Amino acid sequence: MDIFMAELFGTMILILLGDGVVANVVLSKNKGEGGGWIVITAGWGFAVAMAVYVTGWVSGAHLNPAVTVGLVVVGGTTPAGDPVVNHLIQYLA
């Protein structure tokens, strides 16, 4: 798996699972309605864990663009080498 595709796929997993649990709790007429904040936080935790588990070995799991920006600001490099391209890939997802 290419580094860029791993970032794209990892961010997609994060957003789909995380936003999916929020929609399940907030929207009416579904099984998760009124689940509360604990369900949302557990769902987001699971989403982050799965995204990191699936793509971390390829790309270092910089799933949040803020992580990439912070790393570049302190002088680090991204696994892809070019922080601008890596940042743009994260926004595509």
Structural overview:
- By secondary structure, the protein is mainly α.
- It has a single domain, classed as Glycerol uptake facilitator protein (Up-down Bundle).
- The chain is built from 4 helices and no strands.
- α1 packs antiparallel against α2, α1 packs parallel to α4 and α3 (65-73) packs antiparallel against α4 (83-92).
- The longest helix is centred in the N-terminal third of the chain and has 24 residues, at 3-26.
- The model has no long low-confidence stretch (mean pLDDT 81).
Proportion of β residues?
under 5%
Number of continuous helical runs: 4
What gyration radius follows from the Cα positions, in whole Å? Answer: 15 Å
Q: Please tell me the total number of domains.
A: 1
Quick one: overall form?
elongated
What is the mean predicted local confidence, pLDDT? 81
The description of the largest β-sheet is:
none
Structural class: mainly alpha
Number of strands: 0
Helix content: over 70%
Task: List the keywords.
single chain; mainly alpha; Glycerol uptake facilitator protein; 4 helices
List the helices and strands and how they pair.
Blueprint: H1 3-26, H2 37-59, H3 65-73, H4 83-92
Helix pairs in contact: 1-2, 1-4, 3-4
Describe the structure in brief.
71% of the residues lie in helices and 0% in strands. With 93 residues, it is mainly alpha-helical.
